[in-house]
Write a structure and sequence with these properties.
- The structure holds two protein chains of two kinds.
- By secondary structure, chain A is mostly beta strands.
- Chain A has one domain (33-407): Porin (Beta Barrel).
- Chain A is built from three helices and 17 strands.
- In chain A, strands 1-3-4-5-6-7-8-9-10-11-12-13-14-15-16-17 form a 16-stranded antiparallel beta barrel.
- Residues 1-26 of chain A have low confidence and may be disordered.
- Chain B has two domains: 20-179, Rossmann fold (3-Layer(aba) Sandwich); 186-294, Nitrogenase molybdenum iron protein domain (Rossmann fold, 3-Layer(aba) Sandwich), CATH 3.40.50.1980.
- Helix content of chain B is 41%, strand content 12%.
- In chain B, the strands form two sheets. In chain B, strands 2-1-3-4 form a four-stranded parallel sheet, with helices on one face.
- In chain B, helix 2 packs across helix 5 (139-156) and helix 5 (139-156) runs antiparallel to helix 6.
- The longest helix of chain B has 25 residues, at 161-185.
- Mean pLDDT of chain B is 92; it is low at 5-17.
- Classes of the chains: A mainly beta, B alpha/beta.
- At the A-B interface, helix 1, strand 6, strand 7, strand 8 and strand 9 of A face helix 1, helix 3, helix 4, helix 5 and helix 6 of B.
């Protein structure tokens, strides 16, 4: 029990204490430790008929996949970040995953970023998630569904992540307006190995603002391109890993153009009780090259020129604190032109199927999710998806997932 | 060539001289304070309103645009804005308001904080390692913060130094007078008991000598649960609190339920400046809350 203390004494005591505390506690970071360390734990149980991801008309790459049947560890992720000094910020995130019974350590991001360029400029260098799109830069554990939108799997093999340099500029305007450009190795899917290892190029523009006190929005457009000598691609033979089979795109080029939109609403802007989020992204990919498929001693090749499109639309509603429901629709379509086929031991039909370039139907997926987050740091999610893979096969997927975060308090991107 | 196009942009533009100090305040209380201390020399914007929980904000586009143009950032600190402020700083491209610069000011770092946890474990809820961040409810602490903030304004805008000093002197004199008045008025509140929704009134209650006998949140940041409310009902019956204190942006469902069962009145109060029609600056905010606490129930 304390009582009001005499004024002059109090002021001088507080002032005295104040001077001592001024230096020691000016932290806004999530941890008393330097650097901030966090660990994301992700585990799941999945009920799925067929775990092999096939999207007719799309050559798959990167981390595009369906979840494993039964129990599996998801994307367990380790992140370390801090201000390096007064001029740079640094971050590294890596995922520890079990693939085919082997534990793999994947470097997701490792970059440095300037803090003091000023005039709205920031330069980032290293390996990073590209600034294109809306979800591309957001780690999977912060997504609102247990799996990525199909269009991200199909276009970028999960995320567009590459090594290079990025410059961003925020305009000095009341309306948020930001421009970004990236030069990257261009070797990661949907790019491929190139001699100079610098063929990736990306641009993005983002704008956004508030509508009254309860709503805010962001709109972005983006573009990516790369030229490559060889791109290993999965087709029917997922990831090109089928024994003796090899699926490659030679002397190719690819570009992807996209538009993304996010709208968020919370009564009075207080998202703690209830809130709603609507988001949609649409991408068009153009790519061409010499497609080559070999299996044992049989080979086939053809010229390929494709245009592929895809989008998703989703809404997530927090109807009471800690509880959210979400609905998402995914759709993909491919229009591929394959000419000058020649093969030995493989006919054109087999080639189209094995290379992943054959177009049958349009894959689509509808997902509904319910999640419960007892605190800032834990989330349990139940999701049901109906996935039509374009082969006229319907796959019902039920996922029960937990995502927990340990360590420093994460920050929320819009 | 590609590299060149990326880098060339950095050589453009230089920061223009400002007529008024552009202030980005994280919470309305700091906007009010900086306006009191800077008056016509500052143009202040608050990232949050009195009806938002400053802990649950996102680094949304409009806030990035505002931080981009700020000369001075005035926030609470003590991890209150940990979920969004670091991101805003990194995305703003504004060198003047980065940590360690004169344009970076955290109010809570100038005063002693109470309720500093002795054990940092999240099983105790969303706790702040740096202690309770809601320092604007400590009237003496506010004086210390005002002095530090005025000095900061003088550093950033030395041209108007004398003016800032005069405004500080006026603010301090006025605030001290208010403290004397409030302490005289509120003497009868000492040893009253209260149940709070969240520990955001602690500095005020500490100052007035009011005892907190329970929290509607089972753990900081965790919404009330029915089992917790049931145990709180037992506690309320034995300790007989005088009121249940809820900030008017917080969900008062649990508080009303408890009130119905126990006849303890719920006080739905503005938590910061702008939280009610009357609370238009720090003094009127204090006035309204103290009047509500002193009103017969």
């Amino acid at each position: 029990m304390k009582s009001p203390i005499p004024l002059t004494l109090a002021v001088s005591v507080v002032a005295l204490l104040g001077s001592g505390y001024a230096q020691s506690a000016g932290k806004i970071s999530g941890s008393e430790f330097n650097p901030a360390v966090s660990l994301i734990l992700d585990g799941r149980y999945t009920d799925i008929d067929n775990s092999e991801l096939e999207l007719p008309g799309f050559q798959l790459g990167g981390e595009a996949e369906l979840p494993e049947s039964g129990f599996s560890t998801g994307h367990n992720e380790f992140a370390i970040s801090a201000n390096v000094d007064d001029k740079f910020y640094g971050l590294m995130t890596s995922a520890i995953v079990i693939e085919d019974g082997e534990t793999e350590f994947e470097l997701e991001e490792a970059y440095i970023e300037t803090l003091k360029l000023g005039s709205g400029f920031t330069i980032k260098g290293g390996r990073f998630f590209s600034g294109i799109g809306y979800l591309n830069g957001i780690h999977d554990h912060a997504h609102d569904f247990a799996d990525r939108p199909l269009v991200y799997d199909a276009m970028f093999g999960g995320h567009l992540v590459d090594t290079g340099i990025q410059t961003r500029w925020v305009a000095p305007t009341d309306l948020f307006l930001s421009f970004g450009a990236e030069v990257t190795a261009g070797s990661e899917f949907p790019g491929g190995d190139n001699v100079d290892n610098n063929n990736g190029l990306a641009f993005f523009v983002k704008t956004g603002g508030d509508i009254g006190v309860s709503s805010s929005w962001q709109l972005g457009v983006s573009y990516y391109e790369s030229e490559f000598d060889v791109r290993e691609a999965g087709g029917h033979a997922h990831g090109g890993e089928e024994e003796g089979a090899d699926n490659e795109l030679l002397n190719g080029e690819v570009d992807v153009t996209g538009i993304d939109f996010v709208y968020k609403w919370a009564p009075n802007g207080n998202s703690k009780e209830t809130n709603f989020k609507l988001q949609a992204e649409y991408f068009v990919k153009n790519e061409n090259g010499g497609s080559e498929f070999t299996e044992d001693t049989n080979t086939a090749e053809a010229d390929y020129d494709g245009e592929q499109k895809g989008f998703y639309l989703q809404g997530v509603y927090q109807f009471k604190p800690a509880w959210r429901v979400g609905l998402r629709y995914d759709h993909l379509e491919a229009d591929n032109i394959v000419t000058n086929f020649s093969g030995s031991g493989i006919d054109e039909e087999e080639f189209l199927e094995e290379s992943g370039l054959g177009v049958e139907g349009d894959p689509d997926r509808t997902s509904i999710m319910l999640d419960y987050s007892p605190s800032h740091f834990s989330r349990i999610r139940l999701q049901f998806s109906q996935f039509d893979n374009g082969h006229e096969e319907t796959n019902d997927i039920i996922t029960l997932q937990y995502i927990m975060s340990l360590g420093s308090h994460g920050a929320h991107t819009f | 060539m590609k590299l060149l196009t990326v880098i060339i942009g950095t050589l453009l533009l230089s920061s223009p001289a400002f007529a008024k100090v552009n202030v980005f305040a994280c919470e309305p209380e700091w906007k009010a304070l900086v306006e009191a201390l800077g008056d016509q020399h500052v143009k202040a914007y608050s990232a949050t309103t009195a009806f938002q929980d400053a802990h649950y904000i996102e680094a949304r586009p409009s806030l990035i645009a505002k931080t981009r143009r700020a000369d001075l950032l005035v926030c609470t600190g003590a991890e209150l804005e940990v979920g969004w402020l670091p991101l805003l700083l990194r995305q703003s491209g504004n060198s003047a308001i980065q940590e360690g610069e004169p344009g970076f000011f955290l109010a809570a770092s100038y005063v002693e904080r109470i309720e500093v946890p002795t054990e940092l474990d999240r099983s105790h809820g969303d706790i702040h390692a740096a202690g309770n961040p809601h320092v604007h409810w400590g009237p003496y602490r506010l004086l210390t913060i005002a002095e530090a903030l005025s000095q900061r304004l003088q550093t950033i805008d030395p041209e108007h130094s004398d003016d800032y000093q005069q405004k500080l002197a006026a603010f301090v004199a006025n605030w001290k007078k208010n403290i004397t008045r409030w302490e005289a008025q509120a003497a009868g509140l000492r040893d009253k008991k209260v149940i709070v929704y969240h520990k955001n009134w602690s500095y005020l209650l500490d100052w007035l000598g009011i005892e907190t006998v329970g929290d509607l949140e089972p753990k900081p940041g965790i919404p009330p649960t029915s089992s917790h409310l049931a145990s709180l009902l037992q506690k309320a019956r034995s300790t007989k609190p005088d009121y249940i204190l809820v900030a008017n942006f917080q969900n008062d469902k649990g508080a009303r339920w408890l009130s119905e069962k126990t006849n303890v009145p719920v006080l739905n109060l503005p938590f910061t400046v702008g939280g009610s029609e009357q609370a238009q600056d720090l003094a009127t905010l204090y006035d309204e809350v103290l009047t509500a606490l002193m009103a017969p129930h």
